[in-house]
## 1
Amino acid sequence: MKKRLLAAVVSLACISLNVQAEIRINGFASIVAGQTLDDDTRLYGYDDDISYKNESMFALQLSSDLQDRLSATAQIVARGNKDFDAEFEWAYVSYQINDDLKVSGGKMRIPFYRYSDFLDVGYAYRWVRPPQSVYNFAFSTYEGLNLLHSTTLGDWDSTTQLIYGSFSGRVPSAAGATPEQVELNDLAGINWTISYDWFSARAAYIVAETTISASSVVGLTAALNGYGLNNQANSLLISEDDGAFFGLGFSIDYDNFLFDAEYTEIEVENSLLPDQTQYYASVGYRIDDWTVHLTYENNDDEHDSNRLNTVPASISGPNGTVIPVSLDPTNANSPLLRDVTNQVLLGAKQESSTVSVGARYDFHPSAALKVDLSRYNDDITDQDIDVLAVAIDLVF
Amino acid sequence: MKSQIALCLFMSAFYVNAEVAVIVNASNGNSLDKSAISKIYLGKSKSYADGTKVKAVAQTGTSVAKAFTQNVVGKSNSQFKAYWSKLIFTGKGTPPNPLSNDQAVIDFVMNNPEGIGYIDSAKVTDKVKVVGKF
């Protein structure tokens, strides 16, 4: 990994020698200590032992104006939860077509959310981490193109972004579970942000042909296929299915009063992934170098009820025989695949709400100290999990 | 604690009262109001009214810088920094180059026809043009 970093520095340095461009180095870092407050609970990667590593990270950004209108940017990020292995999270080249229009190509952030672009730059927002009910995608970058149009409409600023590309990689599906292979092809999206001094609003729509290895249903789909029930098997697999993301958000920063809210919907048609809706609303108040805040989040994942009972209890065999569709057709007591499938679909249901309170103290021109206390409530089991985290966020 | 709060209030009052002069090159004929200057320092406008590219410089860590961000841009130092960190780390912009003091800003603006900067209004010389005092 060090070699890659070195190679990047050297190659950027070479570019600079050739065209005498200046390389700007900016960096940001977060040192976060956190833990859950009850025995045997896990949340946001924490358990009941204090961790200094889980959410800590360190990043360097190298950018260089190569020639008129052309620039190159690379962001190298080392995350504590990946043993501080340095990785290129961004690497792209931009061409400023005119004052309003810029095209970029390379590896960039998928603009799902309002804070997507600077998700890791803790210094840029008030929480220790953006509300996780909404900010819940395990992958955040894509390779492809991005067209950015910025303009002013009277006193309003308008930014429109179009993206096209793909993503491929292994991402963790849940805490402790084996990572699943995720492929997003024909990833295309548009988002629009308008802002006026203290107010800003944003809408985003992203689609992708989605394939995710779903190791948990491999056995079940093989069994369904064994009965010739290919449609039913395919409606569980996440294989080249249409995925769609929709997000709305707005924020207010008026005098010392802050308000943010985002609403998102995620759907991968015809797959074991449930329809998901999430939102959060957050208020904050600034008092000199202090900001205090309160946030409510909600997540609701559920399959439409018409997805249930699509697997027949039996199929007819040769000579009018009736064959039960079960895990083991020779055993009359074996569970029916219909029930197993229903179970999988019902098991995808998740409902949770989270309340967080926190404070940020800007104790230094380039650093902020934050404390957040979050209470996550699983609305199905009614279990509470509390997480306390203290962070220092820096930019340099 | 009380005396600390009092000190903070006193200091913020002090910074607000410091007068800042925004200066451009003597050859620059564009007129700039507070909102136009604010837009330049927020990276929202990159050219003067006549179409010339803007070359803006700032100051780093000085009381003039604090007064400028407060009086002209209407943001505290850390809000201004947070605002720019969003643009820097998304590749959407580069903040005005920070210089270390008033004299460095005067020199830059004198030598760059597209230059714009801000200084303590007591330090204004006739080698640069003042577009506004805030």
## 2
Amino acid sequence: MLAKRIIPCLDVRNGKVVKGVNFEGVKDVGDPVECAEEYNRQGADEIVFYDITASFEGRGVFLDVVRDTAKKVFVPLTVGGGIKTVDDIRETLRAGADKVSVNSQAVKNPQLIRDGADIFGSQCICVGIDAKKIADEKWTVYINGGRVDMNLDLIDWVKQIEQLGAGEICLNSIDADGTKEGFDIKMLKAVCDSVSIPVIASGGAGKIDDFSEVFEKTGATAALAASLFHFKELTVGDVKKHCREKGIIMR
Amino acid sequence: MISIIDYGAGNIFSVKNALDYLGLDSILTSDINQIKEADALILPGVGAFPGAMKMLDDSGMTDVIKEEASKKPLLGICLGMQMLFDKSYEFEKTEGLGLISGKVDRIEAPGYIIPHMGWNKLEKLNDCPLLQGIGDDEYVYFVHSYQAYCDDSNIAAYSEYPDKVPALVTDGSFVYGAQFHPEKSGKTGLQILKNFGGLIK
């Protein structure tokens, strides 16, 4: 049966990993290609690069990072950040990404999901969502890095995403993000129960049990974390070993 | 030299990247002479069956591939693997290359997420040179909604979702097909590609 996936995420600005990483054996601590190789060695099932560069020049550097990584790391690569058009999707896939993650732009222009899925296939269109709780069992969707509330109901949005042909959802909880108190189980469960496409849990992982909990209590097929792995609090290998001991299928 | 057949579909660069990494010489080509002169062929593919077969037909490669497949190793990947079979029912009935007997149809998995996407375990069924050095607990990366239905004798390894999904198939001679993406399956996938490279005489 399908294994649950553990996905480290690397935030990249101007060709460098933003959060300070300090892996043993990695010479340039800020080099995203070397970080991706290290995560690959640790057993990452997929790697996400998130471009937080604001400039046009930075975009070129970022795509070079994707290109270089695709020559050395042979697990699926997902690339997000700054993708606004079908041409952006094409350029990113051509650089070696297997999937793109669209977030704010998908909310502003949902047709981007449909066009991307029609041209490149659903399997390479992941929709990233930042959502925040407004009442019990009720959440709304935010854009621009969690700064702007779109007054869009989360459950309505995920159903729409699925209909538009998205292949996957990466769901980040604004409430849980950065707290290290665990994934937002309630929100994830509500979303997993509303759609039949895979859902990646994001935001809130702080300890090893958080990973087994999210797989035991929700239908999430993958769990994503950034700083936890950046700061070497846990390795991907530690997390997978723990989940395996809990009886969760892991590669 | 391995010719990776470029008929305008899929992320063929990742296959090339993996072969480069392994030090196996390869070229991306749609040139019939380069297909004839190659030591081995890889038929990649992402997308839908009818469109892909049409692209092969239109570029005049269908007959060449069928002919060369009796002389040198051929590896179909993902949709390229499905194209090795007699026919597919994706959207409409379409003739395949007919190099392995069997058909391609929807994955029957009520209650399961389709596409079958992610890492699944390889269950070995028959000896196969491509499985050399592959252990009993190894996972490979799949992305597909259709699967092959064929005789067990053609299945070198399968995965469960929840029924048997042929993962690695062969005609027992020169023709091999991987439903998963060896170029995206980490060390396991690289080993399988290396084994394929080792078939070159």
## 3
Amino acid sequence: MGKSISVTDLKAWYGDSLTLKGITMELDANRATAIIGPSGCGKSTFIRCLNRLHETSPGAKMEGSIRLEDEDLYTMDPVDVRRVVGMVFQKANPFPTMSIYDNIAIGLRLGGIRNRTELTDRVEKSLKMAALWDEVADRIHTPATALSGGQQQRLCIARALAVEPEVLLMDEPASALDPVSTLRVEELVEQLKESYTIVIVTHNMQQAARVADKTAFFLNGELIEFGETTGIFTNPVDKRTEDYITGRFG
Amino acid sequence: MQQRHNFDLALRELKLKLLKMGGDVQEAIRKSIQALQGLDAEVAQSVVDGDKAINREEHEIEDLCIRLIATQQPVATDLRKIVSGLQIATDLERMGDNAVDIAKSVIRLRGQKLVKPLVDIPRMAGIVDQMISDALNAYVESSLELAEKLAPEDDEVDHIYRKMVEELFKIATNNPSVAEQTMSLAFIGRHLERIGDHATNIGEGVIYIISGERSDLN
């Protein structure tokens, strides 16, 4: 099952530039939350803070608290954080020299799993959860780079799921995909939230409206509005949200 | 910065089409009452004939709204304006049908002498005419105040209608030979009362556009 995330007064900097100006929000367990906002609003920085990727950028720092239920993410080992808070990026990034199988198995091997049967079972389970198994079952030892873009992205989702995270972060996961692959990823989000907490950053407002239970609108590093997706897209409270989602600025 | 110029133009077009249709419906209702007052079958027939144009206006508004939903993916206020626009067009079309029903009653009353002077029906017609104006102005001006004014106006129409029906029943009881005519007049009252209800629906649509809240003015 997924876990909820509590973010309190989160500030993030790149050098002297304050990118997030004190974000406080609760991300519900087993629900999909979309983060929307114009370029540079801090939405990617926000999710990079959630799995401690932000601090790996040169000159980057953060303040505030992020808790995964009762655990403080910033007192945990960052490697453990990235296991429980998985991430999928905008561009599918399978390990180019590895097979489909090894792309998934490598994270498990690094986690100490050596038993071949267990590895194979976990690889199969992950591919099934990412709705890719039926398409690759007969060629899992072929190079991952031979897959289509949409399949590669689902492989990356399978790779993130293999280590059994509690939370799955998705940074523009479908922006490089064709409409059919996009819909497959969106359907997958719908299924995955039964087992995981999903946070999805997207520029595609219709995608947020389709997949997310809750939507947060960021602007200039601030959380402007956060609520049920239906409310945000039919009757937003803040004029800036209205102007952004109706395309009047941004 | 204005970034959806064509979309905004299309929304303005929607507003103008609804206003034009509203004006045409008001005119049809006025003519149907004018026909009743003069028992003028020719004017009544022109209301019946004019309904096709009103129906066509409704279809044009529907087509525009469907096109905007399909091509512009409207959300928030834009979406509420378009969805309410569809509903307003439907209510206006129904009002047009009510005007036709009144006109058809007038055609059936041709050659008869009215059993009583017309007092309540013209009064109701005056109020519902004002209600349609208020509903359309509420829409144009995004005025909650005008939309909410429709509730007491509708109450008054309902009150006159009930009183009028009671009176017509009494007349019919005392003189069964005029029962058919009193029934026709009661139906005309009923059509005006329904027009009032459609005007309150428009008011509710306007309140939804402005606030996103559902309301009941009826």
## 4
Amino acid sequence: MATLNAYLLVGAVLFVCGVICMATKRNGIGVLMGVELVLNGANVNFVAFSKFTSLGLDGQVFSLFIIVLAAAEAAVALAIALNFYNNHLTIDVDRGNKLKG
Amino acid sequence: MTETGELLRNLLMTAWLLPLAGFVVEIFFGFGLFSKNPRHSKGAAWCAVGCIGTGFVCSLIALLVWVNKTGGHDTYEADKGVEKGWMSVIADHNHGLHPHGDGEHAEHSEHEDGDKDHAAGGEQGHEAEGDTDSHDDKDAHAKPHNEEASIEGGEWQLASVTAEESEEHSETEDSRSAAEFPTAFSGRLYTLGEFGSLIVSLDYYIDSLTIVMFAMVTLIATCIHLFAIGYMSDELTDDYVDHFAHTSDGKHVHRPGRFYRFFAFLSLFCFSMLGLVLAGNIFQVFVFWELVGICSFLLIGFYTERKSASDAANKAFIMNRVGDFGFLIGLMVLWTYFGTFNFADINDEGQVTGGLFSMISRSTEGEDLGNVRVDEDGAVLITSPEGEVLQDADGNNRTIPYALLVVAGLGVFGGCIGKSAQFPLQTWLPDAMEGPTPVSALVHSATMVAAGVYLTGRFYPMFTAEVLLTIAYIGGITLFVAATIAIVATDIKKVLAYSTISQLGYMMLGLGVFGWAAGLLHLITHAFFKSLMFLCSGSVIHGCHHEQEMPKMGGLLKKMPITAICMLIGVLAIAGCPLFLGLHFSGYHSKDAIVASALAFSEKNPGHFLLFALPLITAGITSFYMFRLWFMTFWGKPRDQHVYDHAHESPWIMCVPLLILAPFAWLCAYGGDQGDLYVMLTKDAPAHIENGVTAVGDGVVLPEIQEMYNQHEAAGLWALTSAGIGFVLAFALYGMNLVNLDEMKKNLGAAHGFLANKWHFDDLYDGLFMRPAHKVAAFCAWVDRTIFDTTLHFLARLMVIIAQWDRIFDEKVVDGFVNLIASATGDFGERLRVFQTGRVRQYVMFIVVGVVILFAVVFSTFPG
């Protein structure tokens, strides 16, 4: 029987992978994938806590919210990516530095 | 009689208000409404003539109604007591009215049915009804005198008529106060404002004096309006060249014609003058007094570009203010002690219920006959119309100190001195001749200056013997001084101006020596012949192309016969010439009446002999200077051929008014003291003049009216002799040139200079008031420049220095602090910019590093 720590380890690995993916990928889609990893890392933690602690169904409901939110976020982000491509003929996020102060 | 009252009020109000409407139309629309070429339009003039002409028609109807009503009753009243006769008249006319009183109402409606019977039944019926009504009156008398009630009730009033024949009077104390106002209507037109117990309102007061004045003013004004259409016609142009005014580069002033404006001012003047005459309270008189003053100012200064004209306008206005100051003081005293400005409140039954005239009552018998009633301390009692002493809130008798009653009288007379150009304020009137001649005729000889005399006559019941003596002496000095100056004046209008002052002096003297009707008769006759003479002089000036100097005229009789004959009529009238089978000239009657009054007065008071001598001598002087004027202008050979050659008779529109006025100037006083005008005036004479006034202490005796009548023969002879001498002298000097005038002038140089300089009055005032005023002004200017200006400059400089310091503080400290905060914030932001790279991946790294640091900090801080 897997322990809570095992689940948390998987969540942490997923999270770190996601963050590294976000920080290193210059491709916008790659960054998006990193974001998904980070979110799912957190989801694993919620589900694990709901199973092993008194959190109960709340943790699972919360993870469902996150999945829905991730889907919505992906839709918006892909639309941004398309527009970004239309304007820059690339989706290299480093090219989009208009927010430079 | 009630219908009559309403009719009279409406007629006179129409005559009064039409000129105001005319003024509004002329001043706002007169320029351009009537024609395409506005400066050439006579529309405004015809509008003014229409207004005043209609006013004259209204006044004439009012006069006829008045004569008809009052004249008709005299005949059957004569054999009855005053009270009954008076009451019967009331009963006769009172039933159409709805009395506001409670008790009387029922009684009156009972009578109403019987009224027609009474009318048919004749005298008997009247008498019977008169008796019943007099009961009502006693009831009314018993009620406490209530001023406010009387005001409410007095929306319009009823006249009472009394026979004026003194022999037939058997008067009781009660009827005495009623006889105080034999024939008068009064009432309220409009309440302007109420300030506590002070009510400022427009009232009317109609008695025979009002009616006569209305007829006189409107007739003369109509004639003068017509005359002015011709006289002012050179203003009908877009480019009027004023030959008497120069611009700074020495050229004549060019300006647009101001024809319409002249007539607008004339209309406004007529409105003001008629309002003054119609006024029912002394405050309203004051308001219209000032209005005629401002009209006079506007008209004297009509040629405003001429410095002499604007100076003269200022002079007239300021001199009048001096007199009006006295007027104001009088008003204050009256208000303080009497609490009302109304002349007389008359209720629906024709009874006097209050008002100034009834608040001073006079003894009707005994040693102090005719004097005001006083209490044991010498204070004058304030009484109700029934002769009962009024009480104040504490139950004490209301009184006014005798001295203050004198002050009130002198104060009001002070206003009259200013307005009527009496000594010592007479100097403005000759200067006022700067105005156009029709103005001189209307405003400065016939009507406005007579307002002072009118007010003196109107306010007569309030004057004590001391005030009357002052009036007499002021008049005496004025008439003599002005007449002597007129001898040497060479400007035709100036001669007439001084003559006006002199004649006004006559009126004042007449009033002052108790010749009430004589003074006012002279006011009327003088208005006619003086306006006639002024218009004639205007015609001469117009005909001679604005030449006013008599030494350049002469022989104009052939050139302008109508003017010359009309002027001769005026001259004969003012000289007091009896002529033509009893058709004496009006001046003969009026001047005779005044001299007779003066003679009766001086016989009673030998110490005041001057008051008879002055008018007698001046009658001769008057005759002399008036014939001098006529001979110099119209007689003999032309002195200046150029003027003579260009002289011409005036157009018809200027001659017609002369021809209208001439018969009035000749015959308006027809019959003298038996004539219609005189009898009508005496109907409303203040009650106490009939029996005279006996002396109190060292005071003067004022003669009773019968004594004046007795002097007429003697006085007439004296005055005629005096005038005859004047005429002979004038004829010898100026008609036949018996004496070389230049030689004479040289021999009498000192006297001539003295008179030609107007008794040095102008120099005296110059030295007394002008120069000291200039000195004071110079001193004030010096104080202003040195002390005040220095202080101000010092303060200003101090402020500048303080301001400079303040600026430094502001710039360095306040601004510095604010700038410091701003620049610090700016620097901080500049530093933060570094982190805002715009790279998403970098941001992620920041977040990661931030989270790690956060964890590290949290775990190291809370290790447990």
